Amino acid sequence: MRFPKLRQVAKCVVGVLILISYPVVENLREANRHGQEASAIGTLREIGTAQSHFRESRSDELRYGSLSELVEAGLLDESLREGTRSGYRFEVHPSPTTPEFLWCASATPLDPSAEQRHFGTNHAGVTGYSLEGSPVTRGCELDPSAHVT
Question: What is the pTM assigned to this prediction?
Answer without folding.
Answer: 0.79
